[in-house]
Amino acid sequence: MLKDLNLHPVYDSEDYDLIREVQVPLLSQSQEYLRGVGFFSSGWLRLASNGIIPLIEAGGNARIIASPVFDTEDWEALKIGWSAKNDTILWRVLKRNIDDLAVSLQSDTRNALAWMVADGVLEFRVAIPKDLNPMSYYHDKVAVFKDKNGDKVAIHGSLNDSVQGSLNGEALSVFKSWETGQTAYVEMHYSRLEDLWLDRSKQFRAHRIPDSILGDFIELRSSTERPYRLAPCPSLGVQIPSPKCTKRLRDYQNTAIESWIGASYKGIFEMATGTGKTITALAAATKAFEEHGRLALIVLVPYLHLLEQWADNCRAFGFRPILCSGNHSHWDIAVTSAIRDFNLEVTSNICIVSV
Questions:
Q1: What residues pair up with 123 in beta bridges, in sequence order?
Q2: How many angstroms separate the CA atoms of 338 and 331, rounded?
Q3: N or C: which end of the chain has fewer CB within 10 A?
Q4: Average per-residue pLDDT for the chain
């Protein structure tokens, strides 16, 4: 936990390696990491990976907001027409950064980070000044770490997330939520970052990374298995068994499924209580999978107890259901990961059961 770390009020690069001796220990004891930084490079990811991976394995997530690197041509295009040029220019800049990442990171680190993005546990956004002044850019350097007990630590100083930043003369101030007189500093930094992340800043726009760029990032994976362990959640691992019908169906159930298939897999089953609606529906789903080789199955139920019942039946047919409700932690991460794996054809089927 963060309280277990022997944290000093100020760290100076003259005496400490600010990444390895400050950021990495804080990351490794956290479940949430929110960072705003002026300059970000892939080299920092390599240096800090020993802290990020334990955070992810503990069921945490990391969110990083940074200023993208624009050249003069990009800025001029943005000024000419923000709404018309914005997406195109951003895509070009971010694509270039991803291509650089593919070259500059060591293979094992690159693979781990690509998996983190695919799992939705490592997210990036870019901050761009609203006035599009080419002489201004997002230049803050602040981070908040939060552990599973709710304790927080904020760091604020001159350090950028780059290899060059690790070589410069830099310093960090540290604020702890459990220390008298420091809580306000922590909460103010956290609130500032949340406002920026949610695009509520008066000075900057926070832009999500386009799906096409995320796809390029995800494709940097060099193995079909995660090089880290996800915290226990409804979707573990990528190797999902193929669904198949495990029940002997009655004639009217087979007739219903055949009619549904004959109607191009469209229609509604209207069946009396006790005649096996759930079994018929799941058997129909397996038929669709056999025909197409791929299936995304979504089950919506009105009550929590039905969620569990449907999940048990889905498992009996070879599905690996992800349960989505307030009683199931990290379901959003599991769903994000499953959808991305399905879209990239890493897996052939996903099953989501939601209230």
A1: 63
A2: 10
A3: N
A4: 80
Residue 192 pLDDT more than 50? yes
Is 287 a residue whose pLDDT tops 60? yes
pLDDT for 103 beyond 90: no
- With a threshold of 0.90, does the pTM exceed it? no
Strand pairing report for 152-157 and 295-300: unpaired
Distance CA 185, CA 9 (A): 13
DSSP class of residue 67 equals: -
Q: Is 260 left (phi over 0), alpha (psi -120 to 50) or beta?
A: alpha
- Cα(117)–Cα(56) distance, integer angstroms: 11
Q: Which residues, 6+ apart, have CB-to-CB distance to 243 below 8 Å?
A: 285, 286, 289, 295, 317, 318, 319, 349, 351
| Contacts of residue 318, Cβ cutoff 8 Å, sequence gap at least 6 | 241, 242, 243, 244, 246, 286
Give the end-to-end CA distance of the chain in Å, rounded to a whole number. 33
